[in-house]
Each structure stands twice: as C-alpha cells, then as structure tokens.
What does this fold into?
Amino acid sequence: MPVFDLTATPLREFNQALHDVKSGANDTAFEVVNPRGHHSVAVGIDAPVVVDVRGSVGYYCAGMNDGGTVTVHGSAGPGVAENMMSGTVVIEGDASQYAGATGRGGLLVIKGNAASRCGISMKGIDIVVHGSIGHMSAFMAQSGNLVVLGDAGEALGDSLYEARLFVRGSVKSLGADCIEKEMRPEHIEVLSGLLEKAGVTDVKPEEFKRYGSARKLYTFNIDNADAY
Amino acid sequence: MSYHNPPTPPRKSATFDDATMAEIRRAAATGIYDIRGGGTKRKVPHFDDLLFLGASISRYPLEGYRERCETSVTLGTRFAKKPIHLKIPITIAGMSFGALSGNAKEALGRGATLAGTSTTTGDGGMTDEERGHSQSLVYQYLPSRYGMNPKDLRRADAIEVVVGQGAKPGGGGMLLGQKISPRVAKMRNLPEGIDQRSACRHPDWTGPDDLEIKINELREITDWEKPIYVKVGGARPYYDTALAVKSGADVVVLDGMQGGTAATQDVFIENVGMPTLACIRPAVQALQDLGMHREVQLIVSGGIRSGADVAKALALGADAVAIGTAALVAIGDNDPKWEEEYRKLGSTAGAYDDWHEGKDPAGITTQDPELAQRLDPVLAGRRLANYLKVMTLEAQTIARACGKNHLHNLEPEDLCALTMEAAAMAQVPLAGTSWYPGKGSF
It folds into this structure.
C-alpha cells in the first residue's frame, strides 16, 4: 500500500496518484501520514479507492469525493466532504464548519462534534454526527438525511427544502420554515439503516425527533415577509 | 379687483414621475417588490461618454483591410496548464439553463464557437447540449452549487467562481416557480414549481483567505489544468480585484451595474453597484500595483453593445469583455416581430423585462416547450456569430485608426471624455483639455 508522508511529498503528488487510479485497478489503498492540517487532502477522488489519513486535516478534505472511502484518524477542518457525490467519509474526531456542504450523495460520518453550518445546502448526502452540531446547520438543505445523536445549535434547518433532519438531543432553536414532524415507520426504517451504516449500535431510532420543512416559504408571500 | 388665475399646462413632478407613481400603485396593489430581468435602466455615465482621438500628425494609422490588427486573447496564463485561447476578446457571459431555454443556451454555444470565443454556464449546471455545442465552455461555480459535480468540472475549459454580479452585488438569485420545469427541478434537486432562492454567499467559504483555499481545492480536483476566473460585481473594484489576485485567480471578471440578471428586485438592480465605466480603472490600477496587469487577465462586462464599447473597455486596460444582454438581443430577444405578443403581456418590444415569468414570446427566457421551439438554435447561433464578428470588425476599425496592430495596444491616452463624470470615472481628459477630475489632487 502506497504511503504518502506529506512532510516529504507534495500534496499534488498524492492527489494526482488518486486521480490516476484506473477503473478495475488492484492497488486502491492509500495511507497518508503527517497530514498536519493540510488543505484539500484526497479531493476529487473518482474511483473506489480507500484512503486512511493518520492525523488531522485542514479545509475541504475529501472534497467532491465520488466513490472513495476516506477515513481521517483525527479531526477535519472546514468543508470536509463538500459536494460529495458518492462513497464514504469518516472523521474519527471533530469536524469544523460546513461539514458535508452541498453534498449530493454518499455517507459522511463524524464521530465527534461538528461545528456550525453542518450539512448546509445538502443535496442528497447522508450525514451522521455522533456528537452535536453547531448553529445554522442544514441551512437551505435540499435533500438527504442529517442524523445527530447529540444536540443541535440555533436555527436548525433554516429555509429548509426537502432534507430530513433527525436529532436525538435538544435543539436550541429551529430556523425559518423548519418544524418538528411526525416520525413515521418509513423514517424509522431510513434512520435505522443510517445508524447501522454509521456504526452506531447502542442507540434506537425511536429516541430521535424528526424535523423538516413546513413548505411555507416555497412561494413568495408578503405575509411571510418576517421570515425572509 | 378679483384675482384671475390663468390656465397653465399640467406639470408633472420630476420626483414623482409616471414610472415612480406607477410603481407605488403596483406595490400597494400586490404587496411585493417588483422583480424583473435585465440590468439597470437608469442613465449612467457609460462608454458613450468617451471618444477615441484617432491618429494625427503625431501618430499614424494602419491601413484598414490591409494591415493586420490582431484580436486574439489568451486567458488563464498565470497558473493553468491549459489556458483558453480565443480568436476575439468578446466572450459570452454566464446565463443559466433555467433562466434561458435549452435552445437559447445551444444558440449561445453555437454562435460563440463560430466566432472563436467562449460561452459560460450559469446557476443550474451544465447541459450536454451546451457542452456539445461550445468549443470553449466556462463552468460557473456559484453559491447555490446547483448542478455542481466533478465530472462537469473536469469537462469544462475554465471555472468561474462567482462572488457577485453587476446587477446585484451582494445579492443571490431567484428563479420563480413558472420556470422550475421538471428538468430544471431535477438538475437543481428541487421540488417542481417552487420559487427557488439562490444563496448570496458561498456555503463553504467566506473571506479572501478561504477563497484562496477554495481555489486551491478546485485546482487540485482538476489537476491544475483549468483557468480559474473570479467574477465580482462592480462594488469595490480596486479591493475586489486585488483580493481575487491574492486568492490565486487566473482571470478577474468584473461586471458593472448595467450587467443583466435573469430575475432580481428592481430596487436592487437600480440602486446597488457601480457603472461599468467607473469600475475599470480601479481594477486595472490594482493589477498594475500588484505587477499583475496582463498576467491576470481582466474581463469587463455590463452594457457592452458594440465594437466601440469593446475598444473602449480594452483601451482602459481590460483584456477582454463579456456580453449577455446584447447576445440575447442578437439571437432575438425583444425583437419587434413579436410586438403583438409583447403588448398582450403589457409591454412592448425593447422594454420586455419580465424574464422571470417564463412567457417570453421570443422563446429565449422561458422553459415553455412551445415558446422555446420558436427559437431555431442554428439560425440564432449564426446571428450571434455575425454580431460578434461585426463587433470585432468595429473594434479593429477603431484600433487601426489609432495606429494599433492589436486591440490590446489601445491605451487610455487614445481616449477623451465628453463629460466631467466620464472623465473622472475613466480617468481620461475632458475633450479639449489635458485634465480630468482628481488629476493633480483637484
């Protein structure tokens, strides 16, 4: 398995090696040591590679991942797995702002906490946060599922579209047009599957509350002006 | 003696003119601000207020039609492995599939390709038709990230990070429900028929330090092949240009307030941002102060209509221009042949700006299949190519008259200004003088 030491090898070489993996290749596992907060580690993956990053990373780790499995054995800076298309990204530690922003698919698992704007503008990605999330999370979230085992900060799901939010702990406040919704059997089923995929074994889906869009801001209405 | 008040002609208020009062009545009746397409309609200092001096005894002209005047431009020479080479310095500005019909987007791609220039996607992603018909396609990276994906990022010829646009610096987009057709909804991952809001700020970066990291990420994803543009609205051109350069841009796109939009509040279009003319010199100054003029290319847009406008923008220091509204007019927008239908919509050819309603008789700013099929993309593409070629010939004509064998050799000293305002904004002398406001500290 190729090992890239980012104190000795330029990041460009590592990302290029990931992009050079051909479909059907046998050698698809990579290890990164000494990431030391580098930005843009393992971005633009477009093959089913497996990347283990031994340490913490800066901005945009695994950005636009399409099919890779990236595990950060540390914490991640802002925008981890932004615009992910498919694949899996696991952060063993905490994640900074905008985790999973605009993600279109795949699964992002954060085993610690996530800061503000987690899942902002998400468009189909599934995000499971073992800890808590910060303010303005799921802002303008369009689709996908955000699962939070801990608490959510202020203005959760502001201006939400069709994304589903599941929070086990407290929610400091809901954003404009975000409301608590009934947890129906199909939601329990989706949630069970996500918890299982995220390696959560000691928590039941029934412990969560579901939040979604009231759909009152879907068309302009002057009587909703206070919410705009 | 009784006072006799002689009759006087009715006099309307300049402050409360017909348009102002009509807007007050409209607001009172509907309870919502006016939304429309296009750029500012107010008169602002513009390229019309500048003139070229031409050759004289102190400099000689080039022979029209005999001596070459080059028009090519290369964009993205700073970092990109694959810069874009264009035959002419007039590009097509970003306009979305969604705001425009598929046929209109195809026509823009065809016309740009025939003329040897680039076209640009918009808020909503890249369509196969657009990619297929565009030799050089710039892929916009917008706050909404609608339709954004790495596959399209890699098949683009350049990436344009959109921070703002001239019609609404600081504002996001909107696409009203009438235009959220099933295909548009699918591309944007939205429910059909809703009024779509686009964010005004990028979701995963805020200031220039973050932008530098974001640009680096985009370069890593695309293996440093693509030129990366940064587009800003005409707000603080000196600092925005300097910060874009600092952030690693290959190209700065600067859009003045005459630049169009698919749909924005009229109050925003008319009251936020600066005229294109006022933006160019500060941006060029920033590039020069950083030693980056011509290293980082500057594309200017907002109200470019003719080869004279192109030549004036280039003389003030731009490397290229972009056209949006003018390109739509070339392919048939606001054409008098649809006058009867414009009248039914309460407008008239030349004034129709309800692009957001999706009822465009010309079949351009619509998602209605019946209206869209009115636009023949092959013919419309040909019309755009013709127009681009005329603009180029016009710009060459002026450049030759000024003795230049490349459009980029035009200089501010080739210009004079007709008004004090234009002289101050363009920093070229008032006609017949050697002075402009601000020169010599007064």
User: Anything to note?
Assistant: The helical segments of chain A are 11-19, 185-197. The mean pLDDT of chain A is 95. Chain A touches chain B through 43 residues (CB under 8 Å). The domain at 3-227 of chain A is CATH 2.160.20.60 (Pectate Lyase C-like).
